[in-house]
Design goal:
By secondary structure, the chain is mostly helical. The protein contains 15 helices and no strands. The protein starts with 17 loop residues before the first helix and ends in a 10-residue tail after the last helix.
Length: 295
């Protein structure tokens, strides 16, 4: 990573989602994140998860963050209105220095979330360490401490989005009534249907590209992909135990499905041809035919 400074940017422009804006409010407050959590009546771990986008903020939590952070709920929900202003603490200390007093693991989580989002939105080669430091209110030295190189940052971003994907998928599976329904839910979670999905896919695609050029990145990328592929294979084999696709090659069905998911998503993201999210869903619902019907 380089730390070459660029043009000054308004930190508020980075806050494109509710979680981003809430994190900016918390980091702008003249108190630690743990104290902020106490004031709004949230468990610190729950707040940390919400700020990195892996837990949805409830309405009363949004209201409490707005009140303690001295911003409007409208700003938190839409980005419209006055963003939080950096403030000094009671002893005159700048919030950025105060923020570095956070628990190291909490700080690492914040840096990881900021790094992942910036790579997803700007591209791996356009993200500077100064951008990451600015986004999470810390110093470039602190960022370098957690992620010494750009490759470290990309690996961490890939793992960050992979874990977020699996968390969502596990939640979907808990409410699915059958194996076939789990396959349908699997398709829905894979669709690049919203900003967060697109960010996740952006990092996936960038990790593939970098792994092609740099063999040292391949083991990590392969491990993450193998975990996802195993989920599909396990579902296909579960269907077979239930009497579906009894004579089919489970490995071949899995390979066909995962290949279709990747290729179709890339077409959607790049605007290739007439591919759309709706068309992608339609094609994936037929991916296991004639062995397993998802319609």
């Amino acid at each position: 990573m380089t730390s070459t400074p660029g043009p000054a940017e308004d930190a508020g422009t980075e806050a494109a989602t509710l979680a981003d804006r809430a994190r900016l409010v918390v980091l702008s407050a003249p108190i630690s994140q743990r104290e902020f959590a106490d004031r709004i009546g949230m468990d610190p771990t729950a707040l940390s998860k919400a700020l990195r986008g892996s837990r949805r903020l409830k309405d009363h939590e949004v209201a409490a963050i707005a009140q303690v952070g001295r911003v409007s709920q409208r700003y938190l929900r839409t980005g419209e209105g006055r963003p939080p202003a950096p403030r000094t603490t009671a002893d005159g200390e700048h919030p950025r220095r105060r923020a570095d007093m956070l628990d190291p693991e909490v700080r690492r989580t914040q840096i990881l979330a900021a790094t992942a989002r910036l790579i997803a939105r700007r591209g791996f080669h356009k993200v500077r360490v100064s951008d990451i430091a600015r986004a999470c209110g810390t110093s470039t030295g602190t960022v370098h401490y957690h992620f010494p190189t750009k490759d470290d940052a990309l690996r961490a971003a890939l793992l960050y989005y992979a874990e977020r994907f699996h968390t969502r998928l596990e939640a979907e599976f808990r409410t699915a009534g059958s194996t076939v329904e789990k396959l349908r839910r699997l398709i829905e979670v894979q669709l690049p249907a919203c900003e967060e999905d697109i960010e996740e896919w952006s990092v996936w695609v960038q990790s593939w590209n970098e792994a092609i050029l740099d063999p040292t990145l391949r083991p990590g990328q392969s491990a993450v992909y193998a975990r996802w592929r195993q989920i599909v294979l396990d579902l296909v084999r579960a269907c077979q135990r239930e009497g579906l696709a009894a004579d089919a090659d489970a490995e071949a069905l899995t390979g066909r499905f995962t290949g279709m998911v990747d290729g179709l998503a890339i077409q959607v993201l790049s605007g290739t041809g007439d591919m759309s999210t709706l068309r992608m869903r339609d094609l994936l619902l037929d991916a296991f035919e004639p062995h397993i019907s998802l319609r």
